[in-house]
Amino acid sequence: MQKAHEPSLTHLGFQLISPSRPLRPYVRSYWYFQRDIPLLAYQDEYMHPLGRFGIGFNFGDSLLLDSQPLTEPIFLDGVNTISRKMSFLGRVEMLGVSFHEGGAFPFLGIPLFELQNAISLLDVLNKTHLLNLHARLKEAKSWRTRIHILEEWLFSRLLPIKEQDRLVLASLGRLRESDGRLPIPALAQGLSIGQRQLERLYQTHVGVSPKQYSQLLRVENARLALRQMDKGPSSQLAVELGFYDQPHFIREFSNVLGITPHAYIKRKRS
């Protein structure tokens, strides 16, 4: 579940688990939910886009995504360009892997732009193998055993790292260091690569363009800043966050999160 995990998730039995050392260049963390007492009413959690991929395995009752049933037991948290809402009800038990930006491609081996905002993984990889993996994970007696099984599966799919992989990871780091403000032509020039080639690498390895990824970084920084505020953002804050002006900030924030900055603050209060 690609989101900034916030304190409200503790009542769902949420925990983060670090990957083994060989997988750390690719895997950001594993996440696990286990709630002993079933939920009697829907609990909504918002997943804000961060430019990362993830895979989830549901062992509990059915879930809703954007108010629609999530019927498959294995789901792909593809690189999202918009916020999404997941709703929990009944027995909650889930396991997932969250990849670093650019870290999922060596395991999936599919151009990631094809999976942008996607959910179904069973249509992408071998369905029988995935369902067998889910069954093994569900039968395991502890989350530690489940992580061990999941890591075995990841190692079995890991492709050798190539120079273009390192180039993409280096460029992602530079964009994060600049909080999404580094111009894309300057990024390409600093890496001694053509801008169009960089665009193609991002579409394959990240799932979004460098410009889209920069936008997601700026919007996420803005969202975190708004969580500390009780009123709407000023024009000065918009510029400090890397937007041209306040209308530009409101437009990009609304396009990604689906609500205005003012509405986000109001929802946070409630």
- Backbone shape: globular
Helix coverage percent: 40-55%
**SS element count, helices:** 10
Estimated radius of gyration: 19 Å
Number of strands: 7
Task: Describe the main β-sheet briefly.
Answer: 7 strands, antiparallel
Strand content: 15-25%
Structural class: alpha+beta
Distance between the termini: 23 Å
Uncertain ranges: 1-7
Query: Mean pLDDT score, rounded?
Result: 89
Order of helices and strands: EEEEEEEHHHHHHHHHH
Structure in words:
There is one protein chain. This protein is an alpha+beta fold. The protein is built from ten helices and seven strands. The chain has helices at residues 105-108, 127-139, 143-157, 163-177, 184-190, 195-205, 210-226, 235-240, 246-257, 261-269, and strands spanning 15-17, 27-47, 54-58, 63-65, 68-70, 74-77, 84-99. Strands 1, 2, 3, 4, 5, 6 and 7 form a seven-stranded antiparallel beta sheet that branches. Helix 2 (127-139) runs antiparallel to helix 3 (143-157) and helix 7 crosses helix 9 (246-257). The two termini are 23 Å apart. The model is unreliable at 1-7 (pLDDT under 50).
